[in-house]
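Progress against Task 2.4 (sequence-to-structure conversion) is shown through the following example record, which the project officer requested during the mid-term review.
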Amino acid sequence: MTNFNLLFDTLLKIVLCSTVGNQNALCYNGNMQNLRSQNLKMAEKGAWISICAYIVLSVLQLAIASLVGSAALRANGFNNLTDILGNIALLIGLRMARVPADENHVYGHWKVESIASLISSFIMAMVGFELLREIVTDLIENKQTTVEPLGAVIGLFSAVVMLLVYVYNHRLAKKVHSPALLAASKDNLSDAVTSIGTAIAIIAASFHLTLIDQLAAVVICAFIFKTAFDIFRDSAFSLSDGFDESLLEKYRTAIESIDKVKSVKLLRGRTYGANIFLDVVIEMSPDMSVAESHQTTEEIEKTLREQFDVYDTDVHVEPAVLPEESRVADVSLLLLSKEEKLLSGEDLRARDFTEINEFGQKTSDFTKSAFGILHYSAHQLSARTFILLYETDGKIISSIWRRYGIWKCVFRQITKKD
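Structure tokens generated for the chain above:
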């Protein structure tokens, strides 16, 4: 019975996804929701690997630091200890971000990922301040300790481990589009660099240059603060709905290249975790039908989704001001010039153009004329439709022009003049 229900659900999804219009959008949004959730689940692996590595390294470095008396190694151990707390916060955030949308969170819980990054930056900063306080106290008291070279080996080992963790998490973050995991990978790289610095400082201190070991510990604290600030800045930028202006310009160019879009009047972006949400206001010809406008908005959503992986786009359409729309007299003169161009051979026909020639035959071609237009008059049939009446080459011409953003001739009838 369970297999039957699973088969029924699968068939139902296929049927729904094969329909047109809003159902296509619903199916896409559902698939995108599942994809993002799977990406967050994969990102959790990176957080777990970091936690395991930091636990081993922090215990190892703090234990060895107490034996060899290295302030730099102790600072690096505390640095790794803060990373454990930060990655636990990251793990919780990734798990909560996967919770589906509800009545109070219509856009989902994606921003929890950024909140987790923000919390981890606070944890790193607090531990960094405490560690700096201890180091400054030792410097003021001129505390001297004998440092054993064994600490350098531990520092280099820690650097290699963190470099491998960085490579794995950086690639995974790019693959699953996780800004929180990407921030954590930057911290991994920072830890690898500080571990190398720790090893160098311990080697120097083993030659009774204890001050270098202590100064290296200060530099490690600076790395902790720098990493905490970078993570805080990126997460705060996202939480405050900040958005990269260069990306907006790329979106604008892509939208304005779509047929029937006159211009982009307003474009705003915000991020929810790795998901991009856009608000777009475009100007289109007021002559377009609701169906035509809707089709264009769907094309905009599809373009942004396929080219830039935009999660959701809200498009609002406003009528553009057409320059030839001011007065009927202006339109009459404009259409006179267009009719003359049509007679001289320029193709200004609509796609469904039809002509009834002087023999009563229906054709999609049009009859050219080298003679001028006589007794010209224009009559407005609707806001975007005019009929032109005139004589040329001993014939009476009735010509219907319709505005599709630009004016096109849709029908002509030629009658011999008695």
